[in-house]
Amino acid sequence: MALPEQKQDATHARVSALSLPAEGGWTRAARADALSRLNATGLPAPRDEYWRFTRPADLNAVEPPRAEPMDESDEPPLYEDLPALTVVFRDGVFDADASDELALEGVEISRLGAVQDADIHWAREVYGQLEARGQDPVTRPFAALNTAFATDGILIHATGRAARPINIAYLHEDAASDPILHHVVKVDDSASVTVLETGAVGARFNTVMEADIAGGGTLHHVRSQGRNRERRANTHTFARLGARSVFKSFTLSLNGALTRNEHVVEFQGDDAVAHVAGAAIGDGRIAPMHHDDTVFVTHDAVNCESRQVFKKVLKNGALGVFQGKILVRPGAQKTDGYQISQALLLDGDSQFLAKPELEIYADDVACSHGSTTGAIDDDMLFYLRARGVPERRATDLLVLAFLAETLAEIEDEQIAEALRQRLENWLDRHAD
Amino acid sequence: MLEIKNLHVKLEEEDKQILKGVDLTVEAGKVHAIMGPNGSGKSTLSYVLSGREGYEVTEGEATLLGQDILEMEPEERAAAGMFLAFQYPVEIPGVGNMTFMRTAVNAQRKARGEAEMSSADFLKEVRAKAKEMQIDADMLKRPVNVGFSGGEKKRNEILQMAMLAPKLCIMDETDSGLDVDAMKLVANGVNALRAPDRGFLVITHYQRLLDHIQPDVVHIMSDGRIVKTGGPDLALEVEKNGYTDILKENA
To answer: pLDDT truncated to tens, each residue of chain B (251 aa)?
Structure first.
């Protein structure tokens, strides 16, 4: 079916402003394929099924809306005491001086931006491949755009147990930056690695992470998206799970004019586990806040467990979106699928739009989903106040309690505690 | 300590008068019991005193240690020395019992201009007091009241009372849902807190709690008023004859 003219024009305009890297190296074929996918689907339009609640205009625009960098120096670095290997991208540009040496026991690390130096076979088998699989049955045009035009990214190949977490630290300094980064993670049989992402990637940004986890492998992914109120973000995380593998991904989002985080998880091997979770908190008073989690989990293997736990706290006109789907393919028996999306609205101006979906073609499965929207519980609030806890603090305690279930999905308690402290600090800054 | 004069209270949402002129004085060091049939306004009195929303004071006043409490926020009343042991203690998933108690203790201290309690001191004190109430370490770690049995919830209320050391303790139907052993434990906890500078207002439907917490004064409440006041014998009279006779003679 031919694309509507409007979509064609928008896609053409956006693509014309970008250029494929001259030194495509081993990524060249994948990039060309991705570009054809993008041209076939076109950029999203507001009437597309999965874009009804989130307007794509700011992501489609040729010029990114400006976003002034945010001074976050009033908080200490997020993982100050964590012995992570740090890789720094400044507005999407690799900063070698600020980064640690890309060497870590149990892991091979290289950069997408250095593809001309070597033909990285393992990455070639993943780059753009998981993204391409993730286009069906729901298209993800910005992920295809990312594969085609990504300028850099980290390629992580865990061959054993990674000695330390890898922290991809983003710095945002340019109000007009528009980075496109593409990370690839491959975890071998019985290998394990923790990948962290911290900070604002740019004014507008598009990031993709493709994670291919082989049998018995483990990937822990924890992301904190920074505080920038004006950011426009579209991120995709694609995970493919082999037998007995484990994938846990958590995202903390604070404010943000437009954040769309998509997760696409596919179970290919039996007995695997995937937990995808997110906590978002937003105050629409100074700038609009719009946060969208769109998740698609496909069970195509036996006895796998998936959990989606997404919670949002919204105030002063902030808007939250959750679109989550569990697809159980024929034969994927003994599937245990769980999905919960909840919003705590701190006032009558805020809004939560949720679309939970289950599509099940196997008869011996346990799948459940729930979605709730509510206010602070008056009885709990009164109980706390009757014990002398001031209303403001009592409300904060209940907000943190509400989000606690998402933080509980993080394996490492030190990391969870660091993020919980970020939430506390946010609550302190947004007391009105 | 607590002085209530001619207190009239109606529901905020509907035109229903609940308290119709309550007069009551609780002195320091004394235990006052309020008994009365269902719907007499006993629990409403406890809610109004502790500052729960949904009630409107149409007439009268209430002071605690000379301070007008009716205009205060619930947390200000708590800091002023008021404690309400809930009939139905609220479960708060996600908030640890210990965190909650420490936050409450230090919030009250801060409001009174006192130094906050260190973690070490707090831990030491809460452990010692928890032991007296037979509350184990696990109950302290769990979220507030979540998964607690009826008895555990009430013991947890008394533990909070002990940690917060209030001036006036209001106990709303604390005996409800307790078996005899649990009631004894709770009563022992309360009796241990009896002190010359502390007053108690024990609200109960049945006399049995008063076997274990000996009151100095017993009031009978009916239709929003205190209709009879007497000594501990009054509670026994209720137990023997029910409320009907007493209410008849005061009608």
So the answer is: 999 999 999 999 999 999 999 999 999 999 999 999 888 999 999 999 999 999 999 999 999 999 999 999 999 999 999 999 999 999 999 999 999 999 999 999 999 999 999 999 999 999 999 998 888 888 899 999 999 998 899 999 999 999 999 999 999 998 888 888 888 888 998 999 999 999 999 999 888 889 899 999 999 999 999 999 999 999 888 888 888 877 777 65
Structure tokens at A390: 């001031």
Reduced to 3 states (helix: H, G, I; strand: E, B; else coil), residue A189 is: coil
CA distance B83 to B85: 6
CB contact under 8 A, B78 and A387: yes
Residue type at position A20: L
Asked if A374 is an interface residue toward chain B (Cβ–Cβ < 8 A), one would say no
Lowest-pLDDT choice from A274-283, A308-317, B128-137: B128-137
Q: What is the pLDDT of residue A1?
A: 58
> In chain B, which residue's Cα lies nearest the Cα of A388?
B75
Q: Do B107 and A397 touch (CB under 8 A)?
A: no
Q: What is the pLDDT of residue B208?
A: 86
Minimal Cβ distance to A386: which of B50, B99, B103: B50
Q: Is the peptide bond before A165 cis (omega within 30 degrees of 0)?
A: no
Chain A positions touching B77 (Cβ under 8 A) are: 386
Within 8 A of B105 by CB-CB distance, chain A residues are 388
- H-assigned helices in chain B: 42-50, 74-79, 97-111, 119-132, 137-141, 150-164, 180-193, 208-212, 232-241, 243-250
Measured between alpha carbons, how far is residue A44 from residues A25, A139, A143, A238, A290 in Å? 29, 9, 12, 19, 17
Contact residues on chain B for A376, CB-CB shorter than 8 A: none
Distance between CA A261 and CA A292 in Å, rounded? 6
Three-state DSSP state, B74: helix
Residue among B90, B93, B104 whose CB faces A388 most closely: B104
Q: Give the residue extent of every domain in chain A.
A: 5-379
The partner residue sitting opposite B108, judged by closest CB among A383, A388, A391, is A388
CATH of the domain at B173: 3.40.50.300
Report the number of distinct structural domains present in chain B.
1
Among the partner residues B75, B77, B103, nearest to A391 by beta-carbon distance: B75
To the nearest whole Å, the CA of A408 is away from the closest chain B CA by 10
Question: To 5 degrees, how large is the angle CA B23–CA B26–CA B30?
Answer: 150
Residues A79-120 pLDDT 10s: 988 999 999 999 999 999 999 999 999 999 999 998 777 788
Q: What range defines the domain where residue B119 resides?
A: 2-249
CB-nearest to B164 from A384, A387, A404 is A387
Give me the helix-helix angle, B119-132 and B97-111, nearest 10°.
120
Q: How many CB pairs under 8 A join A and B?
A: 76
Residue A375 to residues A82, B12, B51, Cα–Cα distance (Å): 36, 21, 20
pLDDT at residue A142, rounded to an integer: 98
A387 chain-B contacts, CB cut-off 8 A: 78, 100, 104, 160, 164
State the smallest CA–CA distance between residue A420 and chain B in angstroms.
13
pTM above 0.80, yes or no: yes
Taking 3-state DSSP, the helix, strand and coil percentages for chain A, each rounded to the nearest 5, stand at: 25, 35, 40
